[in-house]
Design goal:
Layout: H1 4-15, H2 19-26, H3 30-38, H4 48-55, H5 59-62, H6 67-80, H7 87-100, H8 105-122, H9 128-141, H10 145-161, H11 165-173, H12 186-193, H13 196-221
Length: 222
């Protein structure tokens, strides 16, 4: 609600009314309106729709909320963490972005990817617990299946790196058998990450599926 007072002041001035007039329309004291506009207090939650209706705006406008602008900012943070940015710089940007936009699962997924890569190529055992915490939260709470499947893939990889093979196998087996090529699935993750017969079984199944795709594409092109 940090900008709410400024927004009420701007809407009031645009409407050409005084604080006293606004207070009268809302059945509030002029002192209450003055406190809102100075940021020394906020309207009761139940009063917010009344204020929005009085000015003829939506609650989004009242709160100065622009979903498109927020999405652009989130994507700016995401892309700035890629493109060869040093790990510590990328991590800082992503952590700051997550703090600013707690519901931005795509930033959490990217941070998890960064942690998995650091562990795979540079060790970094201290990253294990924060990485697994992010993965578990995404798997439990995200509504985006691409993000969930990516989190499961990274979680399984991290578990295998740390000797938790059976736990990783259980994560992989919880994934759908086969999915779109852009989404991690049980068949491909088994082929790439598991060992011995578990890996061979996944590879055999993957080979049959891949042949079908090649056949379908060839038939379309002929």
């Amino acid at each position: 609600m940090i900008n709410l007072g400024n927004k009420i002041r701007a809407l009031r001035k645009k409407k050409g009314i005084t604080q006293e007039q606004l207070a009268g329309a809302l059945n509030m004291s002029p002192q209450a309106v003055s406190k809102w506009e100075m940021g020394a207090g906020y309207p009761d939650v139940a009063l917010l729709p009344v204020i929005a209706a009085y000015f003829g705006v939506s609650l989004d406008v009242l709160f100065d909320y622009d979903a498109n602008n927020i999405e652009e900012k989130i994507m700016e943070i995401l892309y700035s963490s890629r493109g060869g940015a040093p790990f510590d710089v990328a991590e800082k940007r992503l952590l700051e972005g997550i703090a600013a936009y707690p519901s931005a699962d795509i930033l959490k997924k990217e941070l998890l990817v960064q942690y998995e890569l650091q562990m795979r190529y540079h060790g970094c055992p201290a990253l294990k617990e924060p990485a697994l915490a992010i993965a578990k939260k995404l798997i439990a709470e995200s509504n985006d299946y691409f993000i969930v499947s990516s989190a499961k893939n990274d979680m399984a990889s991290i578990l295998i790196m740390n000797g938790n093979y059976e736990e990783a196998k259980a994560i992989i087996e919880s994934m759908p058998y086969v999915y779109n090529i852009d989404i991690y699935d049980r068949m491909r993750c088994s082929s790439y990450m598991l060992k011995g017969e578990d890996r061979l079984k996944g590879a055999r199944e993957f080979k049959v599926w891949a042949y079908r795709i090649v056949y379908t594409i060839t038939e379309i092109m002929i």
